[in-house]
Amino acid sequence: MKNCLRIPRVLIPREGFDKWAVIACDQFTSDREYWKRVEQCVGDAPSTLRFILPEVYLGEEDEERIAAIRENMYAALENDVLSKLTRGFVFVERTTRTGVRRGILASIDLEEYSSEEGVPALIRSSEEVLPARLAPRIAERQKAPLEFPHAMLFYRDKKDRAVKLLLREDLEQLYDFDLMEGGGHLTGWFVPEDLAGEVIPMLHGKGEPAFAVADGNHAVAAAKAHWEALKPTLKKEELSRHPARFMLAELVNIFDPAVVFYPIHRLVTEVETEAFCDFFMKSVRCRREGNVLIPALPAGAEGVKKTDELCEAFVRVNGGRIDYVHGERALARRAAQEDCAGVQLAPMDKNDFFPALKGGVNLPKKTFSLGEAKEKRYYLEGREISYD
Fold first, then answer.
1. Using an 8 Å Cβ cutoff, are 95 and 184 in contact?
2. Rounded to a whole number, what is the distance in angstroms from the first to the last CA of the chain?
3. Cβ contact 250:105 at 8 Å
4. What contacts 363, CB < 8 A, 6 or more positions away?
């Protein structure tokens, strides 16, 4: 099988990891207080907060913020804030409420990635990519000297060979600290180039796709779009080795016990509750608990697609809004409010994930979640993506 991975030279801060590491920009998008607390925690310390545009602020001086991101990256390089490791992977352990999740930080080859519907690829998006969400991410990447990723990709390794190999090795520890805002504990070890080379074949699963985006679909798609726009400006000999062709991502075994698939429930608001419930139940057999419908639909993509079709059809004719809710209790609480109704979905089975993507298929949006916002990946390691 074609090699989809490259062994990068990773950048990490020289010190101050607890203030350096900040959660993914697409979390807490309606919670400004969260991001204000992050700003207060970071203060004047070096931090990846200076390298991102949290989506909570999108539409507010975007150009100025993106220009500041570039300047902050150059300043970090010039002020010797970052340490550049020799070529290798980073082996990561993240402790959260679901257990210890292990990942391997590597570079993926964007030439092997596709988010296009019906286009088979060794590296696949898992959900539909919305063009409107790509523009600011592409703008951030243009002319930026560095990348700091929050994307996670799944691979398949039922015997967990790669992780077991790394656990047997006496690796150099790079960091060991608590993440801010209750994000759990993070420990990382350096995997030297020769050992990383042994790990690579263990990560490439048989069949297509070999890797699929678990979290950060729009971040990977933006990196791909930036690379496609850059390619025509390069000489032929640059195409195979230009740093923008690759992207850092954390590779996680889908069979890791700490990887749990949670459903994302649907909530319709500003509607007549009984009218919506009657409409939905005419098409799908349901159990009703208060204002929450529990439909007899298959778990995963098929059930989500049918639910979305019905919710969208009702709202299109009758008005209202569709929201996405994590957790059964939260759904019941919000559905109990006036002019609301909820649809409780079943979690997708891990074993169905890769087969569902075969042949260039994308799952419906918000098909699954890997946990609460605080459990998403934090920015920490970086990499150079230009020759400046």
1. yes
2. 34
3. yes
4. 126, 127, 128, 300, 301, 304, 356, 357
Altogether, the residues listed in the chain come to a count of 388
pTM, two decimal places: 0.90
Domain ranges of the chain: 5-260+371-384, 264-346
Provide the sign of the torsion angle of the four alpha carbons 246, 90, 15, 172, taken in this order. negative
The pLDDT tens digits for 348-367 are 999 999 999 999 999 998 89
**Strand (E) or helix (H) holding 353:** helix 353-357
- Please tell me the distance from the alpha carbon of residue 199 to that of residue 129, in angstroms, as a whole number: 30
How do residues 327-348 score in pLDDT, each as one tens digit? Answer: 899 899 999 999 999 999 999 9
Would you tell me how many other CB atoms lie within 10 Å of the CB of residue 284? Answer: 15
Tokens found for residue 307: 């639910």
Q: Which residue has 């939260």 as its token pair?
A: 330
Give me the residue label for tokens 């990723």. 149
List, as one string, the DSSP characters of 196-260: HHHHHHHH--SSS-SEEEEE-HHHHHHHHHHHHHHGGGS-GGGTTT-GGGEEEEEEEETT-TT--
The candidate with the shortest Cα–Cα distance to 189, out of 50, 322, 85, 63, is: 85
Q: How far is CA 373 from CA 23, 29, 30, 326, in A?
A: 9, 10, 12, 10
Specify the DSSP element, H or E, that contains 329. Answer: helix 328-335
Phi first, then psi: what are they for 286, rounded to 5°? Answer: -135, 155
Q: Can you tell me the distance from the alpha carbon of 16 to that of 45, in angstroms, rounded to the nearest whole number?
A: 8
Coil vs helix vs strand at 136: helix
Which candidate, 387, 383, 385, places its Cα nearest to that of 48? Answer: 383
Token pair 């560095």 is found at: 146
Dump pLDDT digits (tens) for 174-230: 999 999 999 999 999 999 999 999 999 999 988 889 999 999 999 999 999 999 999
